[in-house]
Design goal:
Elements lengths: L1 E2 L2 E3 L2 E3 L6 E6 L4 E7 L3 H20 L2 H17 L1 H12 L3 H25 L4 E4 L3 E9 L2 E5 L5 H14 L3 E5 L6 H13 L6 E3 L4 H10 L5 E5 L2 H11 L5 E5 L4 E5 L5 H13 L9 E7 L3 H13 L19 H16 L3 E4 L3 E2 L10 E2 L2 E4 L6 H4 L6 E7 L2 H8 L4 E2 L1 E5 L3 H10 L4 E4 L14 E2 L2 E2 L4 H7 L1 E9 L1
Parallel strand pairs: 1-5, 8-9, 8-11, 9-10, 11-12, 13-14, 13-21, 14-19, 18-19, 21-22
Antiparallel strand pairs: 2-3, 4-5, 6-7, 7-25, 12-24, 15-18, 16-17, 20-23
Helix pairs in contact: 1-7, 2-4, 2-6, 3-4, 4-5, 9-10
The structure holds NADPH dihydro-nicotinamide-adenine-dinucleotide phosphate.
Protein backbone atom coordinates (compact mmCIF):
# COMPACT_ATOMS: atom_id res chain seq x y z
CA UNK A 1 0.00 0.00 0.00
CA UNK A 2 1.45 3.38 -1.05
CA UNK A 3 1.71 5.80 1.89
CA UNK A 4 1.75 9.44 0.76
CA UNK A 5 3.53 12.15 2.73
CA UNK A 6 3.23 15.88 3.11
CA UNK A 7 5.95 18.03 1.54
CA UNK A 8 6.89 20.67 4.09
CA UNK A 9 10.10 22.69 4.25
CA UNK A 10 11.77 20.47 1.67
CA UNK A 11 11.01 17.23 3.52
CA UNK A 12 8.51 14.43 2.98
CA UNK A 13 6.80 14.04 6.35
CA UNK A 14 3.69 12.42 7.83
CA UNK A 15 0.92 14.52 9.36
CA UNK A 16 1.86 15.84 12.83
CA UNK A 17 -0.99 13.81 14.33
CA UNK A 18 0.27 10.61 12.65
CA UNK A 19 -3.18 9.91 11.18
CA UNK A 20 -3.95 8.72 7.64
CA UNK A 21 -7.02 8.67 5.40
CA UNK A 22 -7.81 5.86 2.94
CA UNK A 23 -7.54 6.67 -0.77
CA UNK A 24 -9.80 4.65 -3.06
CA UNK A 25 -9.21 3.60 -6.67
CA UNK A 26 -12.52 4.49 -8.39
CA UNK A 27 -12.19 1.75 -11.02
CA UNK A 28 -12.11 -0.99 -8.37
CA UNK A 29 -13.66 0.56 -5.27
CA UNK A 30 -10.61 -0.68 -3.31
CA UNK A 31 -8.30 1.33 -1.03
CA UNK A 32 -4.91 1.56 -2.75
CA UNK A 33 -3.06 4.22 -0.77
CA UNK A 34 -3.14 6.23 2.42
CA UNK A 35 -2.83 9.97 2.66
CA UNK A 36 -1.83 12.09 5.66
CA UNK A 37 -4.92 13.30 7.54
CA UNK A 38 -3.26 16.65 8.17
CA UNK A 39 -4.75 19.42 10.27
CA UNK A 40 -4.08 23.03 11.26
CA UNK A 41 -0.72 22.11 12.88
CA UNK A 42 0.65 20.95 9.52
CA UNK A 43 -0.73 24.04 7.78
CA UNK A 44 1.01 26.25 10.36
CA UNK A 45 4.31 24.45 9.83
CA UNK A 46 3.96 24.75 6.07
CA UNK A 47 3.13 28.47 6.23
CA UNK A 48 6.15 29.05 8.51
CA UNK A 49 8.39 27.20 6.06
CA UNK A 50 7.02 29.28 3.19
CA UNK A 51 7.56 32.52 5.13
CA UNK A 52 11.15 31.52 5.89
CA UNK A 53 11.83 30.69 2.22
CA UNK A 54 10.21 33.84 0.86
CA UNK A 55 13.00 36.47 1.15
CA UNK A 56 15.52 34.40 -0.81
CA UNK A 57 12.98 33.16 -3.38
CA UNK A 58 11.59 36.59 -4.23
CA UNK A 59 15.14 37.99 -4.56
CA UNK A 60 16.19 35.22 -6.95
CA UNK A 61 16.38 36.59 -10.52
CA UNK A 62 13.38 35.58 -12.62
CA UNK A 63 15.67 33.60 -14.95
CA UNK A 64 16.82 31.39 -12.07
CA UNK A 65 13.30 30.84 -10.78
CA UNK A 66 12.31 30.08 -14.36
CA UNK A 67 15.17 27.61 -14.81
CA UNK A 68 13.96 25.61 -11.77
CA UNK A 69 10.40 25.55 -13.08
CA UNK A 70 11.54 24.40 -16.50
CA UNK A 71 13.58 21.66 -14.79
CA UNK A 72 10.41 20.46 -13.03
CA UNK A 73 8.63 20.46 -16.41
CA UNK A 74 11.39 18.25 -17.84
CA UNK A 75 11.09 15.81 -14.94
CA UNK A 76 7.31 15.60 -15.42
CA UNK A 77 7.92 14.83 -19.11
CA UNK A 78 10.49 12.19 -18.18
CA UNK A 79 7.98 10.54 -15.81
CA UNK A 80 5.03 10.88 -18.19
CA UNK A 81 4.09 7.21 -18.07
CA UNK A 82 4.21 6.57 -14.28
CA UNK A 83 2.43 9.88 -13.67
CA UNK A 84 -0.28 8.99 -16.22
CA UNK A 85 -0.73 5.58 -14.60
CA UNK A 86 -0.98 7.18 -11.14
CA UNK A 87 -3.51 9.80 -12.32
CA UNK A 88 -5.66 7.14 -13.93
CA UNK A 89 -5.56 4.90 -10.87
CA UNK A 90 -6.39 7.78 -8.52
CA UNK A 91 -9.10 9.45 -10.59
CA UNK A 92 -10.64 6.66 -12.70
CA UNK A 93 -9.93 8.44 -16.02
CA UNK A 94 -8.66 6.41 -18.99
CA UNK A 95 -4.89 6.20 -18.86
CA UNK A 96 -4.87 7.26 -22.52
CA UNK A 97 -6.43 10.60 -21.50
CA UNK A 98 -3.98 11.14 -18.64
CA UNK A 99 -1.11 10.32 -21.03
CA UNK A 100 -2.22 12.71 -23.77
CA UNK A 101 -3.88 15.54 -21.82
CA UNK A 102 -3.38 15.71 -18.06
CA UNK A 103 0.33 15.03 -17.66
CA UNK A 104 1.61 16.82 -20.80
CA UNK A 105 -0.40 19.87 -19.73
CA UNK A 106 1.10 19.75 -16.21
CA UNK A 107 4.56 19.86 -17.81
CA UNK A 108 3.45 22.72 -20.11
CA UNK A 109 2.19 24.69 -17.12
CA UNK A 110 5.65 24.67 -15.52
CA UNK A 111 7.47 25.31 -18.81
CA UNK A 112 5.07 28.11 -19.78
CA UNK A 113 5.28 30.04 -16.50
CA UNK A 114 8.99 29.28 -16.11
CA UNK A 115 9.62 31.22 -19.30
CA UNK A 116 6.73 33.71 -18.84
CA UNK A 117 8.41 35.03 -15.68
CA UNK A 118 11.19 36.33 -17.89
CA UNK A 119 8.80 38.18 -20.20
CA UNK A 120 6.68 39.73 -17.45
CA UNK A 121 7.06 43.51 -17.78
CA UNK A 122 5.65 46.34 -15.72
CA UNK A 123 4.25 49.60 -17.08
CA UNK A 124 5.78 53.06 -17.32
CA UNK A 125 3.72 56.24 -17.80
CA UNK A 126 5.79 59.19 -18.87
CA UNK A 127 4.37 62.72 -18.42
CA UNK A 128 6.46 64.93 -20.70
CA UNK A 129 8.53 67.35 -18.63
CA UNK A 130 6.52 66.63 -15.48
CA UNK A 131 7.01 63.17 -14.07
CA UNK A 132 7.99 59.59 -14.71
CA UNK A 133 5.54 57.07 -13.25
CA UNK A 134 6.52 53.46 -13.11
CA UNK A 135 4.93 50.37 -11.63
CA UNK A 136 6.71 47.73 -9.62
CA UNK A 137 4.99 44.37 -9.20
CA UNK A 138 5.95 42.79 -5.89
CA UNK A 139 5.25 39.11 -5.19
CA UNK A 140 2.28 38.89 -2.80
CA UNK A 141 4.13 36.67 -0.33
CA UNK A 142 2.82 33.34 0.92
CA UNK A 143 -0.18 32.17 -1.09
CA UNK A 144 -2.53 29.17 -0.99
CA UNK A 145 -3.42 27.03 -4.02
CA UNK A 146 -6.43 24.71 -3.61
CA UNK A 147 -7.46 22.43 -6.46
CA UNK A 148 -10.20 19.88 -7.27
CA UNK A 149 -10.19 16.20 -8.24
CA UNK A 150 -11.23 16.23 -11.89
CA UNK A 151 -7.92 17.22 -13.53
CA UNK A 152 -5.68 16.69 -10.52
CA UNK A 153 -2.09 17.46 -11.58
CA UNK A 154 -3.20 19.65 -14.50
CA UNK A 155 -5.10 22.13 -12.32
CA UNK A 156 -2.76 21.87 -9.32
CA UNK A 157 0.23 22.94 -11.45
CA UNK A 158 -1.84 25.59 -13.28
CA UNK A 159 -1.92 27.47 -9.96
CA UNK A 160 1.41 26.59 -8.43
CA UNK A 161 3.57 27.40 -11.47
CA UNK A 162 2.50 31.06 -11.89
CA UNK A 163 2.65 31.66 -8.13
CA UNK A 164 6.23 30.41 -7.98
CA UNK A 165 7.15 32.24 -11.19
CA UNK A 166 5.87 35.49 -9.72
CA UNK A 167 8.14 35.05 -6.69
CA UNK A 168 5.55 33.86 -4.17
CA UNK A 169 6.01 30.87 -1.86
CA UNK A 170 3.16 28.41 -1.88
CA UNK A 171 1.22 26.17 0.45
CA UNK A 172 -0.89 23.93 -1.76
CA UNK A 173 -3.67 21.47 -1.07
CA UNK A 174 -4.77 18.95 -3.69
CA UNK A 175 -8.17 17.32 -3.37
CA UNK A 176 -8.11 14.56 -0.79
CA UNK A 177 -9.98 12.48 -3.40
CA UNK A 178 -7.04 12.56 -5.88
CA UNK A 179 -3.79 13.34 -4.01
CA UNK A 180 -1.42 10.87 -5.67
CA UNK A 181 0.21 12.90 -8.46
CA UNK A 182 0.61 15.91 -6.14
CA UNK A 183 2.71 13.63 -3.92
CA UNK A 184 4.73 12.46 -6.93
CA UNK A 185 5.24 16.12 -7.86
CA UNK A 186 6.76 16.79 -4.44
CA UNK A 187 9.33 14.07 -5.14
CA UNK A 188 10.14 15.71 -8.48
CA UNK A 189 10.54 19.13 -6.81
CA UNK A 190 13.10 17.60 -4.44
CA UNK A 191 14.94 16.09 -7.40
CA UNK A 192 14.85 19.42 -9.27
CA UNK A 193 16.49 21.15 -6.31
CA UNK A 194 13.63 23.53 -5.53
CA UNK A 195 14.76 25.31 -2.32
CA UNK A 196 13.12 24.08 0.89
CA UNK A 197 9.87 25.83 1.82
CA UNK A 198 9.26 27.46 -1.58
CA UNK A 199 6.51 24.94 -2.31
CA UNK A 200 4.75 23.02 0.45
CA UNK A 201 2.02 20.45 -0.17
CA UNK A 202 -0.32 19.56 2.68
CA UNK A 203 -2.70 16.63 2.20
CA UNK A 204 -6.02 16.26 3.98
CA UNK A 205 -9.66 17.23 3.77
CA UNK A 206 -11.08 20.52 2.57
CA UNK A 207 -12.97 21.41 5.74
CA UNK A 208 -9.82 20.84 7.86
CA UNK A 209 -6.68 21.61 5.81
CA UNK A 210 -8.34 23.86 3.22
CA UNK A 211 -10.20 25.80 5.88
CA UNK A 212 -7.04 26.26 8.01
CA UNK A 213 -5.20 27.59 4.96
CA UNK A 214 -7.95 30.03 4.05
CA UNK A 215 -8.12 31.27 7.66
CA UNK A 216 -4.37 31.60 8.18
CA UNK A 217 -3.52 35.31 8.61
CA UNK A 218 -0.14 34.99 6.84
CA UNK A 219 -1.69 33.63 3.64
CA UNK A 220 -2.09 36.68 1.40
CA UNK A 221 -4.04 35.19 -1.49
CA UNK A 222 -6.06 32.12 -2.34
CA UNK A 223 -6.21 30.63 -5.79
CA UNK A 224 -9.08 28.15 -5.70
CA UNK A 225 -10.71 25.88 -8.26
CA UNK A 226 -13.73 23.87 -7.21
CA UNK A 227 -17.46 24.01 -6.61
CA UNK A 228 -19.41 27.28 -6.44
CA UNK A 229 -20.66 26.57 -2.89
CA UNK A 230 -17.11 25.96 -1.62
CA UNK A 231 -15.96 29.13 -3.41
CA UNK A 232 -18.71 31.10 -1.72
CA UNK A 233 -17.67 29.73 1.68
CA UNK A 234 -14.01 30.61 1.01
CA UNK A 235 -14.95 34.14 -0.07
CA UNK A 236 -16.98 34.62 3.10
CA UNK A 237 -14.04 33.51 5.26
CA UNK A 238 -11.31 35.37 3.40
CA UNK A 239 -13.01 38.67 2.53
CA UNK A 240 -12.91 40.21 6.05
CA UNK A 241 -9.12 39.62 6.04
CA UNK A 242 -8.85 41.41 2.63
CA UNK A 243 -7.16 38.45 1.00
CA UNK A 244 -6.85 38.44 -2.74
CA UNK A 245 -9.05 35.75 -4.30
CA UNK A 246 -9.07 33.95 -7.63
CA UNK A 247 -12.07 31.63 -7.77
CA UNK A 248 -12.61 29.20 -10.67
CA UNK A 249 -15.99 27.62 -10.01
CA UNK A 250 -18.70 25.48 -11.57
CA UNK A 251 -20.31 25.61 -14.99
CA UNK A 252 -23.39 24.55 -16.95
CA UNK A 253 -22.07 25.10 -20.41
CA UNK A 254 -24.18 25.33 -23.57
CA UNK A 255 -23.33 24.11 -27.08
CA UNK A 256 -25.15 26.19 -29.72
CA UNK A 257 -25.43 24.18 -32.95
CA UNK A 258 -26.70 26.23 -35.90
CA UNK A 259 -28.09 24.63 -39.07
CA UNK A 260 -25.25 25.92 -41.27
CA UNK A 261 -22.52 24.21 -39.25
CA UNK A 262 -20.23 21.39 -40.34
CA UNK A 263 -22.54 18.76 -38.88
CA UNK A 264 -20.07 15.87 -38.75
CA UNK A 265 -17.51 18.03 -36.94
CA UNK A 266 -20.13 19.47 -34.57
CA UNK A 267 -21.25 15.95 -33.66
CA UNK A 268 -17.70 14.63 -33.23
CA UNK A 269 -16.63 17.52 -31.00
CA UNK A 270 -19.90 17.58 -29.05
CA UNK A 271 -19.32 13.92 -28.18
CA UNK A 272 -15.94 14.90 -26.72
CA UNK A 273 -17.28 17.98 -24.96
CA UNK A 274 -20.06 15.87 -23.44
CA UNK A 275 -18.17 12.79 -22.28
CA UNK A 276 -14.43 13.50 -22.04
CA UNK A 277 -13.21 12.54 -18.56
CA UNK A 278 -16.72 11.09 -17.97
CA UNK A 279 -18.15 14.62 -18.27
CA UNK A 280 -16.13 15.70 -15.25
CA UNK A 281 -14.48 18.76 -16.80
CA UNK A 282 -15.73 22.18 -15.78
CA UNK A 283 -15.68 23.10 -19.50
CA UNK A 284 -17.82 20.17 -20.69
CA UNK A 285 -20.94 21.22 -22.58
CA UNK A 286 -23.93 19.62 -20.90
CA UNK A 287 -26.76 21.50 -22.64
CA UNK A 288 -26.79 20.95 -26.39
CA UNK A 289 -29.11 23.31 -28.26
CA UNK A 290 -29.66 22.35 -31.92
CA UNK A 291 -31.42 24.42 -34.59
CA UNK A 292 -34.68 22.61 -35.33
CA UNK A 293 -34.01 21.93 -39.03
CA UNK A 294 -30.99 19.75 -38.19
CA UNK A 295 -32.25 18.40 -34.85
CA UNK A 296 -33.07 14.90 -36.10
CA UNK A 297 -29.87 14.32 -38.14
CA UNK A 298 -27.76 15.70 -35.27
CA UNK A 299 -29.55 13.47 -32.77
CA UNK A 300 -29.19 10.39 -34.94
CA UNK A 301 -25.44 10.90 -35.51
CA UNK A 302 -24.81 11.90 -31.89
CA UNK A 303 -26.55 8.78 -30.56
CA UNK A 304 -24.60 6.61 -33.00
CA UNK A 305 -21.42 8.16 -31.57
CA UNK A 306 -22.57 7.53 -27.99
CA UNK A 307 -23.21 3.88 -28.85
CA UNK A 308 -19.57 3.64 -29.96
CA UNK A 309 -18.14 4.81 -26.62
CA UNK A 310 -16.58 2.04 -24.54
CA UNK A 311 -17.05 2.08 -20.78
CA UNK A 312 -14.44 -0.04 -19.04
CA UNK A 313 -11.18 -0.49 -17.18
CA UNK A 314 -9.29 2.83 -17.41
CA UNK A 315 -6.10 0.86 -18.06
CA UNK A 316 -7.47 -0.80 -21.20
CA UNK A 317 -6.33 0.77 -24.47
CA UNK A 318 -9.83 0.76 -26.02
CA UNK A 319 -11.60 2.40 -23.05
CA UNK A 320 -13.02 5.83 -23.77
CA UNK A 321 -15.09 6.11 -20.58
CA UNK A 322 -13.46 5.29 -17.25
CA UNK A 323 -14.94 5.35 -13.75
CA UNK A 324 -16.53 8.32 -12.01
CA UNK A 325 -14.31 9.66 -9.28
CA UNK A 326 -16.11 8.28 -6.21
CA UNK A 327 -19.16 6.39 -5.07
CA UNK A 328 -20.63 9.58 -3.57
CA UNK A 329 -20.21 11.39 -6.89
CA UNK A 330 -21.74 8.47 -8.82
CA UNK A 331 -24.75 8.60 -6.48
CA UNK A 332 -25.07 12.35 -7.08
CA UNK A 333 -25.04 11.89 -10.87
CA UNK A 334 -27.55 9.02 -10.64
CA UNK A 335 -29.84 11.28 -8.58
CA UNK A 336 -29.85 13.78 -11.47
CA UNK A 337 -30.76 11.00 -13.92
CA UNK A 338 -33.70 10.19 -11.66
CA UNK A 339 -34.59 13.89 -11.56
CA UNK A 340 -34.46 14.10 -15.36
CA UNK A 341 -37.10 11.33 -15.52
CA UNK A 342 -39.23 13.15 -12.93
CA UNK A 343 -38.94 16.41 -14.88
CA UNK A 344 -40.39 14.72 -17.95
CA UNK A 345 -37.24 13.96 -19.95
CA UNK A 346 -37.07 11.16 -22.50
CA UNK A 347 -34.03 8.93 -22.08
CA UNK A 348 -32.30 8.47 -25.43
CA UNK A 349 -29.17 6.64 -24.26
CA UNK A 350 -27.55 5.27 -21.11
CA UNK A 351 -28.95 6.09 -17.69
CA UNK A 352 -27.61 3.00 -15.91
CA UNK A 353 -24.65 1.99 -13.80
CA UNK A 354 -22.25 -0.31 -15.65
CA UNK A 355 -20.92 -3.52 -14.12
CA UNK A 356 -17.42 -4.05 -15.51
CA UNK A 357 -16.14 -7.60 -15.21
CA UNK A 358 -12.90 -8.67 -13.56
CA UNK A 359 -10.74 -6.39 -11.41
CA UNK A 360 -13.16 -3.47 -11.95
CA UNK A 361 -16.26 -5.28 -10.63
CA UNK A 362 -16.52 -2.87 -7.68
CA UNK A 363 -15.89 0.31 -9.72
CA UNK A 364 -18.05 3.40 -10.17
CA UNK A 365 -18.98 3.19 -13.85
CA UNK A 366 -21.90 4.88 -15.58
CA UNK A 367 -23.22 4.76 -19.12
CA UNK A 368 -22.93 7.98 -21.14
CA UNK A 369 -26.43 9.37 -20.82
CA UNK A 370 -28.54 11.54 -23.15
CA UNK A 371 -32.00 13.03 -22.53
CA UNK A 372 -34.33 15.10 -24.68
CA UNK A 373 -37.65 16.78 -24.02
CA UNK A 374 -36.60 18.70 -20.91
CA UNK A 375 -37.60 22.33 -20.41
CA UNK A 376 -34.62 24.69 -20.81
CA UNK A 377 -35.25 26.07 -17.31
CA UNK A 378 -35.75 22.77 -15.45
CA UNK A 379 -33.29 21.85 -12.68
CA UNK A 380 -31.43 19.32 -14.83
CA UNK A 381 -30.77 22.11 -17.34
CA UNK A 382 -29.78 24.67 -14.71
CA UNK A 383 -27.73 22.77 -12.08
CA UNK A 384 -24.21 21.44 -12.55
CA UNK A 385 -24.22 17.63 -12.72
CA UNK A 386 -20.52 17.20 -13.52
CA UNK A 387 -20.93 13.75 -15.03
CA UNK A 388 -21.65 12.01 -18.35
CA UNK A 389 -25.20 13.37 -18.70
CA UNK A 390 -26.30 15.76 -21.45
CA UNK A 391 -29.58 17.10 -22.77
CA UNK A 392 -30.61 17.79 -26.38
CA UNK A 393 -33.03 20.65 -27.08
CA UNK A 394 -34.22 22.06 -30.44
CA UNK A 395 -34.35 25.85 -30.93
CA UNK A 396 -35.94 28.10 -33.56
CA UNK A 397 -34.23 31.49 -33.35
CA UNK A 398 -30.93 33.05 -32.31
CA UNK A 399 -32.71 35.16 -29.66
CA UNK A 400 -34.33 32.08 -28.17
CA UNK A 401 -31.14 30.06 -27.92
CA UNK A 402 -29.22 33.00 -26.46
CA UNK A 403 -31.84 33.44 -23.75
CA UNK A 404 -31.67 29.74 -22.89
CA UNK A 405 -27.87 29.61 -23.04
CA UNK A 406 -27.62 32.59 -20.67
CA UNK A 407 -30.44 31.37 -18.45
CA UNK A 408 -28.39 29.82 -15.65
CA UNK A 409 -26.45 31.21 -12.72
CA UNK A 410 -23.23 30.00 -14.39
CA UNK A 411 -21.13 31.59 -17.14
CA UNK A 412 -17.98 29.57 -17.67
CA UNK A 413 -17.77 28.34 -21.27
CA UNK A 414 -19.83 27.90 -24.45
CA UNK A 415 -19.37 26.55 -27.94
CA UNK A 416 -20.93 27.95 -31.14
CA UNK A 417 -21.20 25.89 -34.33
CA UNK A 418 -21.82 27.88 -37.50
CA UNK A 419 -20.17 28.81 -40.80
CA UNK A 420 -21.60 32.35 -40.62
CA UNK A 421 -18.76 34.53 -39.37
CA UNK A 422 -21.00 37.49 -38.52
CA UNK A 423 -23.32 35.32 -36.48
CA UNK A 424 -20.40 33.62 -34.75
CA UNK A 425 -19.05 36.92 -33.45
CA UNK A 426 -22.48 38.39 -32.68
CA UNK A 427 -23.54 35.37 -30.64
CA UNK A 428 -20.15 35.09 -28.91
CA UNK A 429 -20.37 38.71 -27.74
CA UNK A 430 -23.92 38.18 -26.46
CA UNK A 431 -23.08 35.06 -24.44
CA UNK A 432 -22.47 35.52 -20.73
CA UNK A 433 -19.50 33.15 -20.77
CA UNK A 434 -15.89 33.80 -19.84
CA UNK A 435 -14.75 31.45 -22.61
CA UNK A 436 -16.38 30.97 -26.03
CA UNK A 437 -15.18 28.45 -28.60
CA UNK A 438 -16.32 28.80 -32.21
CA UNK A 439 -16.29 25.53 -34.18
CA UNK A 440 -13.96 23.94 -31.63
CA UNK A 441 -13.80 22.94 -27.98
CA UNK A 442 -11.08 22.87 -25.33
CA UNK A 443 -8.62 24.60 -27.60
CA UNK A 444 -6.26 26.29 -25.15
CA UNK A 445 -3.55 28.87 -25.60
CA UNK A 446 -2.02 29.34 -22.16
CA UNK A 447 -1.62 33.08 -22.78
CA UNK A 448 -5.37 33.74 -22.89
CA UNK A 449 -7.38 34.80 -19.81
CA UNK A 450 -9.20 31.79 -18.37
CA UNK A 451 -12.21 32.01 -16.06
CA UNK A 452 -15.92 32.43 -15.71
CA UNK A 453 -18.61 35.10 -15.41
CA UNK A 454 -21.48 35.15 -12.89
CA UNK A 455 -21.31 32.29 -10.36
CA UNK A 456 -18.59 30.54 -12.35
CA UNK A 457 -15.93 32.60 -10.71
CA UNK A 458 -14.04 35.75 -9.90
CA UNK A 459 -10.78 36.69 -11.59
CA UNK A 460 -8.89 35.10 -14.45
CA UNK A 461 -6.05 32.62 -14.65
CA UNK A 462 -3.60 32.12 -17.50
CA UNK A 463 -0.72 34.11 -18.98
CA UNK A 464 -0.13 37.57 -17.63
CA UNK A 465 -3.42 37.53 -15.72
CA UNK A 466 -2.05 34.83 -13.42
CA UNK A 467 1.25 36.63 -12.90
CA UNK A 468 -0.65 39.84 -12.15
CA UNK A 469 -2.84 38.00 -9.64
CA UNK A 470 0.14 36.78 -7.65
CA UNK A 471 1.75 40.24 -7.54
CA UNK A 472 0.88 43.56 -5.92
CA UNK A 473 1.40 46.64 -8.11
CA UNK A 474 3.12 49.65 -6.56
CA UNK A 475 3.10 53.01 -8.37
CA UNK A 476 6.21 55.14 -8.04
CA UNK A 477 6.33 58.72 -9.33
CA UNK A 478 9.53 60.71 -9.91
CA UNK A 479 9.18 64.46 -10.46
CA UNK A 480 11.22 65.59 -13.43
P1 LIG B 1 -14.91 21.15 -4.12
O1 LIG B 1 -15.35 22.56 -4.06
O2 LIG B 1 -15.61 20.16 -3.31
O3 LIG B 1 -13.38 21.03 -3.72
C1 LIG B 1 -12.34 21.77 -4.34
C2 LIG B 1 -11.16 21.85 -3.39
O4 LIG B 1 -11.54 22.63 -2.26
C3 LIG B 1 -10.74 20.49 -2.85
O5 LIG B 1 -9.33 20.49 -2.69
C4 LIG B 1 -11.44 20.46 -1.51
O6 LIG B 1 -10.82 19.60 -0.61
C5 LIG B 1 -11.28 21.91 -1.07
N1 LIG B 1 -12.19 22.36 -0.03
C6 LIG B 1 -13.39 21.83 0.35
N2 LIG B 1 -13.90 22.55 1.39
C7 LIG B 1 -13.03 23.54 1.65
C8 LIG B 1 -12.99 24.62 2.61
N3 LIG B 1 -13.95 24.80 3.51
N4 LIG B 1 -11.95 25.46 2.58
C9 LIG B 1 -10.96 25.31 1.68
N5 LIG B 1 -10.92 24.31 0.77
C10 LIG B 1 -11.95 23.44 0.75
O7 LIG B 1 -14.92 20.78 -5.66
P2 LIG B 1 -14.65 19.36 -6.29
O8 LIG B 1 -13.31 18.85 -5.86
O9 LIG B 1 -15.86 18.52 -6.07
O10 LIG B 1 -14.51 19.73 -7.83
C11 LIG B 1 -15.59 19.82 -8.69
C12 LIG B 1 -15.99 21.26 -8.90
O11 LIG B 1 -14.88 22.01 -9.39
C13 LIG B 1 -17.07 21.41 -9.94
O12 LIG B 1 -18.03 22.32 -9.49
C14 LIG B 1 -16.34 22.00 -11.13
O13 LIG B 1 -17.13 22.75 -11.99
C15 LIG B 1 -15.31 22.83 -10.46
N6 LIG B 1 -14.22 23.09 -11.38
C16 LIG B 1 -14.07 24.35 -11.90
C17 LIG B 1 -13.07 24.61 -12.83
C18 LIG B 1 -12.88 26.00 -13.38
O14 LIG B 1 -11.82 26.24 -13.94
N7 LIG B 1 -13.82 26.89 -13.26
C19 LIG B 1 -12.17 23.55 -13.30
C20 LIG B 1 -12.41 22.28 -12.68
C21 LIG B 1 -13.40 22.06 -11.75
P3 LIG B 1 -11.22 18.01 -0.52
O15 LIG B 1 -11.61 17.56 -1.87
O16 LIG B 1 -9.97 17.41 -0.07
O17 LIG B 1 -12.32 17.95 0.46
Amino acid sequence: MVQLQNYINGLLVPAANGQYLPNIEPATGQVFSQIPASDAQDVTQAVRAAEAALPAWRRLPAEERGRLLVRIAELIERDLEPLAQAESQDNGKPVSLARTVDIPRAASNFAFFGTAAQHFASETHFQEGVALNYTVRHPLGVVACISPWNLPLYLFTWKIAPALAAGCCVVAKPSEVTPYTAFLLSELCLEAGLPAGVLNIVHGTGPVVGQALVEHPSVKAISFTGGTKTGEHIARTAAPMFKKLSLELGGKNPNLIFADCDLAEAVRTSLRSSFANQGQICLCGSRIFIERSIYEPFKEQFLAGVAGLTVGDPQAADTSQGALVSEAHLEKVLSYIELAHQEGGTLLAGGQRVQVAGRCAGGYFLQPTVFEGLAPDCRVNREEIFGPVVTLTPFDTEEQVLAWANGTEYGLAATIWTRDLNRAHRVAHALHSGIVWINTWLHRDLRTPFGGMKNSGVGREGGLEALRFFTEPQSITVKL
